[in-house]
Amino acid sequence: MAATENTNRAVFGLSGVTGMLIATVLLLSILVFLTVWGLGVQQKSATNPYDPTPITSNLDNVKMISKDNANFAFKDAK
């Protein structure tokens, strides 16, 4: 029975407390990065909104299949 006993125990190894702390710090840093990035996107969108006038101005000339329909779509924010 002594041959099957696990003698390679490392509480502070990568599969122990240290690994758990590395995984926790990694996940928290990803959370912080995505939160800051999302806030930046929201601030940029709030100060530079889309202009809906091209799509609501005149839709009489819109054809079913035409490359000119791009003139009636939303324009990218500057």
Instruction: Give the low-pLDDT segments.
Output: none
pLDDT averaged residue by residue: 78
3D shape = elongated
Strand content: under 5%
Number of helices: 2
Helical content band: 40-55%
Rounded to an integer in angstroms, the radius of gyration calculated over CA atoms is: 28 Å
Which structural class do you get from the secondary structure elements?
mainly alpha
Tell me the distance between the termini.
73 Å
Largest sheet: none
* H-E string: HH
- What is the count of β-strands? 0
Provide the descriptors you would attach to this structure in a database record.
mainly alpha, elongated
Helices and strands, with pairings:
Layout: H1 17-47, H2 53-56
Structural features, described:
The protein is elongated, with a radius of gyration of 28 Å. The mean pLDDT is 78. With 78 residues, the protein is mainly alpha-helical. The chain is 45% helix and 0% strand.
